[in-house]
Amino acid sequence: MCQVDEEYNGQLEHRVTPRVSKKCVKCKENTAVLIIRAGDAFCRGCFKEYFIHKFRAMLGKNRVIFPGEKVLLAVSGGPASSSMLSQVQEGLSRDAPKKLRFVPGIIYIDEGGASGQSMEERERAVAQLESVFRATNYHYHIVHLEQVLSLPSSVLDAGSSATEKPQTGSSYKAAVDQFIQTKKNQHPDLSVENAQSHLSSLSMHEVENGVTSPITPEHTQALQKLFASVRTLTAKEDLLHTLRQHLILHTARTQGYTKVMMGDSCSRLAIKLLSNISLGRGASLATDTGFSDPRYGDVVIVRPMRDYSSKEIAYYNRMFDIPSVFIPGLDTKAQDKASIQHLTESFVTKLQTDFPSTVSTIYRTSEKLHTACPPQNTNTQPFAKCLLCVCALDTKLEEFSAYQATLISEQLSQRRGPASSASQGQCCSSGGGQHQGCMTGEGGCCSSAKSTVDLKSLLCYSCRLTIKDMVNALPQYILSEAERRKRRSQMREEISEFLLDEEEDEAIPRVNGSL
Amino acid sequence: MAAPIAIHLEFGGGAELLFGSVKEHHVTLPNQSEPWDMKQLLVWIRGNMLKERPELFVQGDTVRPGILVLINDADWELMVGVLPECVLCVKD
């Protein structure tokens, strides 16, 4: 059964080519046009109903979107996110029963600089997408990936969450009330309905404001240099994903969006789940593939398309003329084994053809993963988040952990001395040289500013692997944030004896006697 | 026995990159003795239309996993089952 080329001749029953078309399994009247899941044939009308219903059910089941909230839709131009955009339009339209109530905005990130596209191709794609966005009448933002090089380092701060995560239905209502209350405090003269119309009228006026500052060829070159310095395609894709998340987060924060909707489909998430395990991100699987991703604190990422297989999305787009633009990415036309993500994708897709329940099984497994919410002591552990991916750090070196075993075998396999390792993880002095003194207000705790910053202790396991593949420096904002955290933790160490509050997981020796 | 058949092929979702970035093709399949079926059509496409990287489009007897095929806007799987055996219907 598990061989690649095994033939099942004669064993399976041949389905005779039906001259009579199959009937839809739902309405049993119309002819079926497509097969979903293992064998359900649907006709056009029933399929449309089913598709729309799934979207609303997904939003309704996980009630995290508050009425009147600003939600940013991350559209990449691909089929899943274009489908999501059309579903949002559908849900917000006047004639929908129980229509959705939130204020959408659109963001598109132009990654052509990283994937090596020419300026004309990028402009063409952007123009196509702009015409799609204009037709929706929502406020849209077109951001070029080059702008990630000029982000402020505050983007890496996990902001405090505005409200607590609603656990049951009743506290959802409480959360909504609280949300409306805070909005009232900001706009004391507007009620919720007025706020909504106010915001939507704003978006009508500012639609021209969608494109951010134009980029220069130098920016593009700097970005290309950054990506060229990464040796493996796996690390490139990982880095691209991280930078993209930072950009989306930054836009959401500056423009006042509290939720971001990503268009990851079921197939895409199944592939992501397996490839994340291979990349070393097992600890953050629940947040990476779950419905809501609260790691950034004030901005929550939701994935409403996670129940749709890519086949359903492709058929829906085709049948109901949803415009989508294909933009080649980093791994387009690459060899199967070019990167871990690509290999996993081809593995899952191949398996799916022979065993059509593959993707849904992986999906159902991922649904069972839950985030274990740590106690909300945001003041005690400010640096427990990875610098790049803002997930909880999983590299505490415990006895007999798998991580310790990895480190030991790595040390054993390096025949050379430790001098060579001072290398690749450390950034070149261009980043460090500009930060000579402490920031004011840090007190007199700056141990001599090191010219290289040791990033490893600030990163989770898989981000360390990504950095290991890079020879050049990371963008400036990451480096400056890394330095800041390093200084902070050094200061913390130096004054740890004098800290009065005792954390349970740090064995701080109390100072005996008089202080 | 079969007359030349004119068909309209559309490629999308990135597949067009293998066909010179052209999405729509109108082609005429040549005369041949047996009626055309999907398998032969794929072989013909591979031989006559594919500009590059055939392994990204065709795998063995059928399309590469992940590529969806619609025949007259209906699912290919509805007509066949697993093996590509259906007789090609013409859409003018």
Automatic annotation (TrEMBL), chain A:
* An example Gene Ontology biological process: protein urmylation
Q: For this UniProt entry, what is the primary localization, expressed as one broad class?
A: cytoplasm
Per its record, what are the GO molecular function terms?
Answer: nucleotidyltransferase activity; sulfurtransferase activity; tRNA binding
- What keywords are assigned to this protein? Cytoplasm, tRNA processing
An example of a Pfam family matching this protein is CTU2
Question: Which compartments is it annotated to reside in?
Answer: Cytoplasm
Tell me which InterPro entries the record gives: CTU2 (IPR019407), Rossmann-like_a/b/a_fold (IPR014729)
The pathway to which it is assigned is: tRNA modification; 5-methoxycarbonylmethyl-2-thiouridine-tRNA biosynthesis
A GO cellular component annotation in the UniProt record: cytosol
User: Which SUPFAM superfamilies does the UniProt entry name for this protein?
Assistant: Adenine nucleotide alpha hydrolases-like (SSF52402)
Family according to the record: Belongs to the CTU2/NCS2 family.
Instruction: Describe the function of this protein.
Output: Plays a central role in 2-thiolation of mcm(5)S(2)U at tRNA wobble positions of tRNA(Lys), tRNA(Glu) and tRNA(Gln). May act by forming a heterodimer with CTU1/ATPBD3 that ligates sulfur from thiocarboxylated URM1 onto the uridine of tRNAs at wobble position.
* UniProt-listed PANTHER family: CYTOPLASMIC TRNA 2-THIOLATION PROTEIN 2
Q: What is this protein called?
A: Cytoplasmic tRNA 2-thiolation protein 2
Q: Which organism is it from?
A: Oncorhynchus tshawytscha (Chinook salmon)
UniProtKB/TrEMBL annotation, chain B:
Q: Does the keyword tRNA processing apply?
A: yes
Family named by the database record: Belongs to the URM1 family.
Q: Which Gene3D superfamilies match?
A: 3.10.20.30
Q: What is this protein called?
A: Ubiquitin-related modifier 1
| Taxonomic placement | Eukaryota, Metazoa, Chordata, Craniata, Vertebrata
Q: Which organism is it from?
A: Oncorhynchus tshawytscha (Chinook salmon)
Which residues does this entry mark as bearing 1-thioglycine? Answer: 81
**Keyword Cytoplasm listed:** yes
Q: Tell me what PTMs the record reports for this protein.
A: C-terminal thiocarboxylation occurs in 2 steps, it is first acyl-adenylated (-COAMP) via the hesA/moeB/thiF part of MOCS3, then thiocarboxylated (-COSH) via the rhodanese domain of MOCS3.
Keyword set, alphabetical order? Cytoplasm, Isopeptide bond, tRNA processing, Ubl conjugation pathway
Pathway annotation from the record: tRNA modification; 5-methoxycarbonylmethyl-2-thiouridine-tRNA biosynthesis
